[in-house]
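2024-03-11 09:14:02 INFO queue: dequeued item Aminotransferase, len=409
2024-03-11 09:14:02 INFO validating residues
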Amino acid sequence: MNHLSNSLAAVDIATTLHPYTDARAHEVNGPLVIARGEGVHVYDQAGKEYIEGLAGLWSVAVGFSEPRLVQAARRQMEQLPYYHSFAHKAHEPSIRLAEKLVEMTPAPLTRVFYTSSGSEANDTVVKLIWYMNNALGRTKKKKFLARIKGYHGITVASGSLTGLPNNHRDFDLPAIPVHHLTCPHFYRFGAEGESENDFTARLLAEAEDVILREGPETIAGFIGEPLMAAGGVMPPPAGYWQGIEALCRKYDILLIADEVINGFGRLGSSFGAVHYGFTPDVMVLSKQLTSSYMPLAAVLFTEEIYQAVADNSARIGTFGHGFTASGHPVATAVALENLAIIEERDLIGNAHRMGKLLQEGLAGFADHPFVGEVRGAGLIAGLELVADKQSRRTFSCGCRPHLQGISER
Ligand code: PMP
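2024-03-11 09:14:37 INFO prediction written
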């Protein structure tokens, strides 16, 4: 069956602008309409089965069609399908989830703010830190450090933190003060003859130079994915995070771990920051938080940030930030059940064990003439394909795969 003759596909082509899709190619090729999912598989309208190797967008931790998540959503839908959390309102699932997240994440994170997406969460991080610094009278401390090829979302602030050309060019971004440091990917950004340790030292020196040039009193935060994911699955070089953490402490810069993909076991450890052994002041969580069955993200932050924000909001009467769906009861109820399943089934331990097999298996491709590098941690991996191993030249075939994934930006 030609999928273009399918009426759903025709309506889709006629009506929808797809995210991260070449619109003109879509008019010709149409969508792949997925009809249902089960475990690690999804099925199209004709019943054809696909292995969902990316787990959606790195998000379906417990697999598709988990009945317990369906029941959790249904129960909450029947009891209280919606309520907000503005102006002192609250409901049990969001309270219980905040308690759980504070318990699960490493100290010193004690406070939670909810959004519906990773992008909104990173916008919240920017605004929270700006607000805190205004409250503390540090009105110049507003700039962020991020990395080339980092991915933090696509809204105006989070898209500015993202360090990928397609997210900036033609969107007039960055729109907030952000400096993108060298991407910490040794294979691509290491200099000829440089060791991995020298590479780390060079990146740390670069970061310190930028801080000193701009003035530490102007730098509010450093944001990074512990293991860079959407920009190309790039684990950091040895010692990188310890060095960045030391710089943040030295110059009073908040360290933000964007764990939207890394969090809840993707790397075979609970969180990316735990995996690489550093302590963030702010952690951003989403995706595997609900297995993406419901849109939800959470910003975890320290008591110190909370106290400054709370003092100021008491002074002016309110903290003027929040979303209609912040802490949505159905989303937070699903998250609680999802986290219970992750714990009961030891999915983080499983990711560690299966991740070892995955990484070892993929390492076998390293000798292939078109594989430049095999890399990853736990259940996230990348093979970098090159046309020439010696020069590391990439293929530039200009091909546009129909099933373009987010990693192919
Ligand atoms: N941060 C990271 C690390 C991400 O990978 C993503 C999405 N892939 C985001 C933020 C943005 O999340 P969302 O798409 O939910 O806005």
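2024-03-11 09:14:37 INFO annotate: The two ends are 30 Å apart (CA to CA).
2024-03-11 09:14:38 INFO item closed
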